[in-house]
Amino acid sequence: MEEKKRHSFGGSIGFVLAAAGSAVGLGNIWRFPYLAAKDGGGLFLVVYIILALTFGYTLLTTEIAIGRKTKQSPLTAYTKLHDKWGFLGAIASIIPVIIMPYYCTIGGWVVKYFFVFLTGHGADAAQDGFFTGFITSQWEPIITFVIFLAVSAFIVFRGVNKGIESTSKIIMPILLVMILGIAIFSLTLKNTNDAGEVVTGLQGFKIYIVPNFEGLTIGKLFTVLIDALGQLFFSLSVAMGIMITYGSYVKDDANLGKSINQIEIFDTVVAFLAGAMIIPAVYAFMGTDGMSSGPSLMFVSLPKVFAAMGVAGNIIGTIFFAMVLFAAITSAVSVMEAVVSCIMDAFHTSRTKAGTIEGIFALIVGIIVCLGYNKLYFEFKLPNGSTAQILDIMDYISNNLLMPIVALATCILVGWVIKPKTVIEEVEKSGCKMGRKRLYTAMVKVIAPIFLILLLLQTLGIMKL
């Protein structure tokens, strides 16, 4: 049976929490603190906040407005905007298809660590080689991946209101309380290092929020800018079809400008708290050496920190991985919903059929990703110089390559073809005024495209930082 009437969010709160839930994911929790520590703490924060209020605001506004104006998923929305730009919808739709299998694989890793701490075996996770031993085993990563995928799919199958909106209304407030609680706890930590010095979480927090201008050069500042730009794609869930999909579920009488501002604030606060939660704790117990990139921060460094806390560490670890699991699920749901929505709109099929197709595809490819660490392991050199295997290659293609391309092409379409007034009029449709109108026009036409070109050149290894 076909879905003839497009579902919509019951209210603006449901939309804001669902969109914020999509934005607050693994990228925020492990990538933001690492980049902040690497790029001079407060310096990165200042650059990030400025970009969030300008560059991020522009992409977020554009995508949500496109979604509500067309009432379509990304696959068909671009064609509705301009009949010669349908190819952009196809590219935008491929991104969540690529992301879903490997994101659920990482979600499975979180499931594993949550159960390890929940059952009181957190000390095991702190042992050298525990993470590597887990992901290189043949069956366990596949089992945890399937569990995570099944939970995400269940929420999507329930639909926009009963699934995505109702789940977000429950999970997001709990998530915020958990992050805030752990952040406050991190500030109270004290530890005596090998040199006999007392190191505190507050010292780590100071490193996090106070800009470090030592040795600052134009090149270093440029690196911070590129890192912050790349992080915004993770933080705001833009250029992957999600915000167009969620925007298509927003009612015409909703105050779009207000909702966008709330999503910005929510996401920036959570990103900041993620840093306040992780950097002070890691600094107190491991110094700056513990702030390694990507999965190793969450799955190697932090379990060691929790183990060093003693009895309390197992409890804090359980709460932490429960929080990460909530964040990962809300993001995975949004990624899957973008794909399901595309299938429904393009082929006029039911949610059940669309969800089943995407679920089966994600299951098959996700198993291949899991096996990429054992049976199917190989190494490949990416254009940016890093060594990769299956998961890294998929991440590079979707996040580093296709997302900047989609964002750049969308800016050209809106800025120069259909004109910024198309988006501005959509935002102001419900009678509200768009506060940053001039900024939006300048960003979408000129500044954002320049930033995106620089990001692409760096990704392709053409421009070395």
From TrEMBL:
According to its UniProt entry, this protein's organism is Wujia chipingensis
In terms of Pfam families, this protein maps to: SNF
Q: Where is it chiefly localized?
A: membrane
Q: Which residues cross the membrane?
A: 12-30, 42-66, 87-111, 139-158, 170-189, 221-244, 265-286, 306-335, 356-376, 396-418, 439-463
Keywords, A to Z, come to: Membrane, Transmembrane, Transmembrane helix, Transport
Asked whether the UniProt record includes NADP among its keywords, one would answer: no
Entries under PANTHER family matching the protein: TRANSPORTER
Q: Where in the cell is it found?
A: Membrane
What domain of life is recorded for the organism?
Bacteria
InterPro entries from the entry? Na/ntran_symport, SNS_sf, YocR/YhdH-like
Which topology term describes how it sits in the membrane?
Multi-pass membrane protein
This protein's GO CC annotations: membrane
Name of protein: Sodium-dependent transporter
